[in-house]
Amino acid sequence: MKLIAAFIVASLSLPVSDRPGSRTAYGELEQGVRVEATGRRNGGWIEVRAAADIPLEGWVEAKGLGCRLSREEALLDRPGGSQIADFKEKALVRIVSSKGEWLEVESLAPALTGVIPASSCSAEVPEYRPGSPSMGKLAGVMKDSWLYAAPNTEGKGRTKVGAGLRFLVLEERPDGWARGYIDEDVEVAGWMLLSDLSDPVFPSPLAILTEKSPYDHELLLSGALRPAPKGKPFVELPEGTLLQILETRDGWVRIETAGPVRARGWLEEKEIRRVHFPEDAVAPLIRVTPQKEAPLDRGPRAPSAPDAGAR
Fold first, then answer.
1. Which of 100, 84, 55 is closest to 181 using CA atoms?
2. What is the 3-state secondary structure (H, E, C) of the chain?
3. Where residue 40 sits, what CATH number does that domain have?
4. What is the distance between the terminal CA atoms of the chain, rounded to a whole angstrom?
5. Residue 192 falls within a domain, yes or no?
6. Percent of the chain at pLDDT above 90?
7. Does residue 204 have a pLDDT over 80?
8. Which of 96, 122, 148 is the last residue of a domain?
9. Where does the pLDDT of residue 154 fall: very low under 50, low under 70, confident under 90, or very high at 90 and above?
10. CA dist list (Å): 2 to 36, 101, 158, 260
């Protein structure tokens, strides 16, 4: 891969190590984090620094890095060759190799490999956000399945697609097939079985609000994270960094910071405090109209017994 100044993390989680080839990581970078190359490289490893609030620096595997596209682009099987798929602007791709003015790249979901012009690759482009389609019917891929080049085909011209991807249905056939395309940051046209599709699933805002986070402590002031108690600092954490405690030892705590840059190391226990997320903080967001309790229906009343003194 040609060494460029900046990349975007394309892997779901990219471990950061203190030296090339090390399997001991002191942190991870989540997908989408922008990193800057320091200029050092060793085989398939490259030294980078996270361009984020936590400027974690270390060695990562180059195969986990990529870029976003600054414009719509066709994915080709070779320079000047046949089209495989369409990339939308801001699509995230993994860089496989550099071939002069072309980059060999891989789309993430579904995974397709081809080439694009290197000029369309950038680390400065913001994250892609899916929009509402202007035609067709939006569906969700219910399980890991296949996208076929034509209906009623077995094994030929098919692409593996994962559960949860968006599929825009343009045509439905009585024999159980649907024509359309995968509607992610990469568009791939084809046919799918209707039995593999369902209504699209959207995350519940209420579930996000009420889910308990393990990152229940914060840093009181900016502080240095160390690989061991009293060790040499390797990254500076800003004030208010959310973190979780992994281990305690003689006035020191081993912690992990919340993403997208997850750094692990040691701080003095006096440098942090617990953060409370009371359930009643969410209660005002959930408004339920109280229902008046209806009186218990006891059935018809029995007639009163006659008064013994009455004549």
1. 84
2. CCCCCEEEECCCEEEEECCCCCCCEEEEEECCCEEEEEEEEECCEEEEEECCCCCCEEEEEHHHEEEEECCCEEEECCCCCCEEEEECCCCEEEEEEEECCEEEEEECCCCCEEEEEHHHEECCCCCCCCCCCCCCEEEEECCCEEEECCCCCCCCCEEEECCCCEEEEEEECCCCEEEEEEECCEEEEEEEEHHHEECCCCCCHHHHHHCCCCCCEEECCCEEEECCCCCCCCEEECCCCEEEEEEEECCEEEEEECCCEEEEEEEEHHHEEECCCCHHHCHHHCCCCCCCCCCCCCCCCCCCCCCCCCC
3. 2.30.30
4. 112
5. yes
6. 75
7. no
8. 122
9. confident
10. 14, 11, 32, 26
What radius of gyration, in Å, describes the C-alpha atoms of the chain?
28
Residue-level pLDDT at 71: 97
* Amino acid occupying residue 99: K
Instruction: Give the domain CATH number at 269.
Output: 2.30.30.40
Question: Tokens 């071939």 — which residue?
Answer: 99
For the record, the structure tokens of 200 come out as: 């699209």
In a domain, 300, yes or no: no
Total domain count, the chain? 4
